[in-house]
Specification:
The chain has 459 residues and is α/β, with parallel strands linked by helices. Among the domains are: 196 residues, Alpha-Beta Barrel (nicotinate phosphoribosyltransferase), CATH 3.20.140.10; 87 residues, Alpha-Beta Barrel (TIM Barrel), CATH 3.20.20.70. 41% of the residues lie in helices and 19% in strands. It has 17 helices and 19 strands. The longest helix has 25 residues. Its EC number is 6.3.4.21.
């Protein structure tokens, strides 16, 4: 298995304003310790929960963040930055602290998913890329988790999303996020190699079309892939193709070649699956599976299984890795503390809670989640703390968490969801309580802000 992350990435993969703010902080000699937290303001429509993902990529990014001579030259050419400021970036390394929810953790609005504590220039610089990585993998993992719940553990689920993903990185990270959430594997070869994800492949319509007849295409593919022959049977007439597969499979068995499955990719998948199952069973081929694909999502998977469609596996792509019904989160990365003082935004509809925070989760006697409390970091509370310290002085406290471990954690989290939240339809709102001490700190921050404003006004 290859390393999960690249060894280097240009720090210029960010917004210009991250650098203009760094220059302004530099000019004002401001670089005290700051804490920023990433959180989601509200759940997207139709969602009962979200699943945290992308932390590993964030940690790789922070570990390797540095400026090359070419990066500094480009910044100089922009004309926005002073020579003294650019010289301060030479030898730059992230030296801050990171606390976060482990990947695969289920979370809800107002709960910090990740906190970065560092000199304010460093903490500011990383905002855009950190948000980019956490946001994308979280929306995909959250969508994939719903597909997993719809599958009820009864079926194989394969990520089919690369070809319509919004770029190569999205294709790779969606494979990772969906596997984290409980998918069986991916069709993307590099994702399999990089992340240790099982890979699955079938065949293309073009292969069938390139042959003079379907029978020849099926036979030649089965002989080429004797240990992995999944035959695509809907290029022309699905049921007629199933009859050809049945006749071919019986003959191939005598040679020790076994057709693994047939794949359906169009039409009424439930109806075709029933007819194809009857054809295969009638030929004594009950061990040949039926795999379905074609614009699937959690709703179609649920409906097909609830109709007892005899489908053994699903390839889920576009609707998942674009999170088609809710393609973005109302998320933010906001300053919560600077120079030892609480800071909070008070904008209408976008107010934030000040201070470094922790979330505590309580469980009922049946093992299901029953409520969370957001407190100040260091405050004790009933339940299990969700945020864990994972990086100090720019270095990890432990080896990278194996994706298989995060996947197991995600499965445990989904199993602990209250029944109402496991459903695809919106259920009851999960209770997230803000501690009295945090509410009081918000009042203190507001009072300090009012005093500072009055002092500035009288100056």
């Amino acid at each position: 298995m290859m390393s999960e992350g690249a060894t280097s990435e240009s720090p210029l993969l960010t917004d210009l304003y991250e650098f203009t703010m760094m220059q302004a902080y530099f000019d004002s000699a401001m670089n005290d310790t700051a804490s920023f937290e990433f959180f989601v303001r509200k759940l997207p429509p139709g969602r009962n929960f979200l699943m945290a993902a992308g932390l590993e990529q964030v940690l790789v990014y922070l570990e390797n963040l540095t400026f090359s001579a070419a990066d500094l030259s480009l910044l100089k050419q922009s004309g926005h930055f002073s020579g003294a400021f650019l010289r301060s970036l030479e030898g730059f390394r992230f030296c801050g602290e990171v606390a976060a929810m482990p990947e695969g953790t289920v979370f809800f609005p107002d709960e910090p998913i990740l906190r970065i504590t560092a000199p304010i220039r460093e903490a500011q610089l990383v905002e855009s890329r950190v948000m980019n990585l956490l946001h994308y993998e979280t929306i995909v993992a959250s969508k994939a988790a719903r597909v997993v719940l719809a599958g009820q553990g009864r079926t194989t689920l394969v990520d089919f999303g690369l070809r319509r993903a919004h770029g190569a990185e999205a294709g790779l990270l969606s494979a990772r996020a969906s596997y984290l959430a409980g998918f069986t594997g991916t069709a993307t070869l590099l994702a399999g190699a990089r992340f240790g994800i099982p890979t699955f492949g079938t065949m293309a319509h073009s292969y069938v079309q390139a042959h003079s007849d379907e029978q020849s295409a099926f036979e030649s593919f089965a002989r080429s892939q004797p240990d992995n022959a999944t035959l695509l049977i809907d290029t022309y007439d699905t049921e007629a193709a199933a009859q050809k597969v049945a006749a071919l499979a019986v003959g191939l068995r005598a040679e020790g070649i076994f057709v693994k499955a047939v794949r359906l990719d169009s039409g009424d998948l439930g109806d075709h699956a029933r007819k194809v199952r009857a054809i295969l069973d009638g030929a004594g081929l009950r061990d040949i599976g039926i795999f379905a694909s074609g614009n699937l999502d959690e709703y179609r998977v649920r409906d097909l299984l609830s109709q007892d469609a005899p489908i053994d596996g699903f390839g889920v792509g576009t609707r998942m890795n674009t999170s088609a019904d809710s393609p973005y989160l109302d998320c933010a990365y906001k300053l919560t503390e600077y120079a030892g003082l609480p800071r909070r935004k008070r904008s209408e509809g976008k107010a934030t809670w000040p201070g470094r925070k922790q979330s505590w989760r309580r469980y009922s006697s049946d093992g299901n989640m029953c409520g969370d409390t957001v407190t100040l970091d260091g405050e004790t509370c009933e339940g299990t703390p969700l945020m864990q310290l994972c990086m100090v002085q720019g270095r990890r406290l432990a080896a990278p968490v194996a994706l298989s471990t995060s996947r197991g954690h995600a499965a445990h989290e989904l199993a602990a969801l209250p029944p109402a939240l496991r459903k695809l339809e919106p259920g009851s709102t999960f209770p997230v309580t803000i501690s009295p001490s945090l509410i009081e700190l918000a009042r203190t921050a507001d009072a300090l802000g009012a005093l500072a404003g009055a002092a500035a006004g009288s100056a």
